[in-house]
Design goal:
homodimer, alpha/beta, Aspartate Aminotransferase, domain 1, Aspartate Aminotransferase, domain 2, seven-stranded mixed sheet, four-stranded mixed sheet
């Protein structure tokens, strides 16, 4: 056994995440490690909290970055808010809605499933019917931006429905945060999780998380102990409770948090509205070019995510062959289809730092070249 | 709100972890991000697996780095191996044995607690009595190197006892891996977890994990579904199953894994035996200096961890004042006491890259200065 240092090439990441990362965020990762209880680090965590509040557009006191990927963020929401026997209405229109169902079941809850077609938004009428048919439901859970299909759902309307029916809303914002409009307080979202590696353009491994006061009270008044020690947010709350009052839970991923801090400073400097506009602009440039190549979108225009473009693989074209060609010739990564769309779709991400004209132009040129081969 | 980039000072980390990190590992963190399904990244994960097998001294096929901190690694062991009603004998001689008990209970198991004094090794006789009294126990769990007290327990003897009594052994090696002798296969350890930020000298946030074939079979033959989706190792197994056969579970923390890979290459290049000898040597230098200062160890010599030196705070000395003095004047971090030892002890870590003569000399000089103030 004699392994050498790993020196990855510079890829252009236009898949479903991780996304391209700015040089500044990459540089932040290799700053000197400090102790996770160092007063300077604790202050930085306070800043991360304030910056995440800005990103989520919330004043929620409980706004943190979970020390694990987005799928752990999803589990943190369900495992803390759902107790044995609780009914949860889950909207499924892709892979991640399905994963929510697994989480409800493993948390001991009962999942009431509302299916909408893959590649389409969650159907609001069906959700309303389910809420009426299940007046005892505790939560309504849905994915804001389905990473597996590229469809956006109407989070504002769905959360308003949840409130009307006295349900907590649980929202997957893994791909939406920083990419499209998302207003946690205005829309009355109760529990929301995201990932660091999508439109925030940080490295993968952290999950931004925010709970409303109502959600926090539900956790504080649970009858049973949360089944997970690591994800028990009543413990994590004290860990993120701010300078001076911080109690030990686990060792924070110090350097990844440097990266997240830097990526959030960049978001603050750009301004959320500008970032959202940039995603839309780059998406329009991409869509125009794809139309010229005769490539069709899976999602109808009004339900499309600008930051994740799911397109049909043209007839007779070899999926893997094209993706490998792009990767090997151009160092360009685009995403394969997932779940029901495996082998049928590509997913082109324009997330965060990746949403740039040079990337769009390269992607279109490279794709044209690949299809001509 | 107008936050700036965070520029931490260069600290010398001689607490209980995170430990000092080599410039090479820090540099590895900021290499370009690649996709988590990129063939080059999948090959790197295969190398991480082989390097972890070397670190653990095992041929276990199931040897991975969990995408979350050591406390999630602990939970992964219990939540996968323990089902409702299972009896688990847990040895408690510090904070982390106590955390194991919480994990057993939250996994639905019954914890049989064997208490040994804080600051001492787990008492083998008591464990044997518990094994005899509980012939139906499924697992024996203990902490190899108690980070809260600095005591090492006889993992070899305890695992042999577990085997004699047909129990699976679950071993916490968070602070031991890479610091003292640890032979997973020779000692017959069934499930073991560690942390990236201790004697491996990588950034915090990852948990090396290894399960014996016997443990893997127990997981495969569970009657119930694992309560955690994120920590369900039957799903994670396919994720780490090696090039070509890899199936999607979550997005790996790409850059943290670059760091772990680099730190394991450094372990390979130094050689485990040499690293263990280095820890011992530096510990002896530190112990000699502490004796001159009249400072006493908490743990008797034969049960002392070289990499984590728990010492009594001299009478009349202000705990926090001294630690702040060291941090502010010398950029030197030493650890506070934890649990029963809070306010009574300091913990001086000599872990991985931190176990160097220059650190020991600085620590002794700075401590002498602080005590004279």
């Amino acid at each position: 056994m004699n392994f050498q240092s790993f020196n990855p090439p510079r890829r252009i990441l236009m898949g479903p995440g991780p996304s391209d990362i700015s040089p500044e965020v990459l540089a932040a990762l290799s700053r000197p490690v400090v102790g996770h209880l160092d007063p300077l680090f604790v202050s930085m965590m306070d800043e991360v909290k304030a910056l995440l509040q800005y990103a989520f557009q919330t004043k929620n006191e409980f706004t943190i970055a979970l020390s694990a990927p987005g799928s752990a963020g999803m589990e943190a929401c369900f495992v803390n808010l759902v107790e044995a026997g609780d009914k949860v209405i889950v909207c499924r229109n892709g892979v991640f809605g399905d994963r929510m169902i697994q989480n409800v079941i493993r948390s001991g809850g009962e999942a009431i499933i509302v299916d909408s077609p893959w590649g389409r938004a969650v159907e609001v009428d069906k959700v309303e019917q389910a809420l009426i048919a299940n007046p005892d439901a505790k939560c309504l859970a849905f994915v804001h931006a389905e990473t597996s299909t590229g469809a956006v759902s109407d989070a504002k309307v769905l959360c308003a429905l949840a409130q009307q029916h006295d349900c907590l809303s649980i929202v997957d914002a893994v791909t939406s945060l920083g990419g499209i409009e998302l207003k946690v307080d205005d829309w009355g979202i109760d529990a929301i999780y995201s990932g660091s590696q999508k439109c925030l353009s940080c490295v993968p491994g952290l999950s931004p998380l925010s709970f409303s006061e109502k959600a926090v009270n539900v956790i504080k008044n649970r009858k049973s102990t949360v089944q997970s020690w690591f994800l028990d947010q009543s413990l994590v709350m004290s860990y993120w409770s701010g300078a001076g009052k911080r109690s030990y839970h686990h060792t924070a991923p110090v350097n990844s948090l440097y990266g997240l801090h830097e990526s959030l400073v960049q978001l603050q400097n750009e301004g959320i509205e500008n970032r959202i506009a940039r995603h839309k602009e780059q998406h329009e440039m991409l869509a125009k070019g794809l139309a010229k190549l005769g490539i069709e979108f899976i999602v109808p225009e009004e339900e499309r995510l600008p930051q994740l473009n799911a397109i049909y693989i043209p007839e007779g074209v070899d999926d893997a062959k094209v993706r490998n060609y792009l990767l090997n010739k151009y160092n360009l990564e685009i995403g394969a289809g997932l779940g029901d769309l495996a082998g049928k779709a590509w997913r082109i991400g324009l997330m965060g730092y990746a949403a740039r004209s040079e990337n769009v132009a390269l992607c279109l040129a490279a794709l044209e070249d690949a299809l001509n081969q």
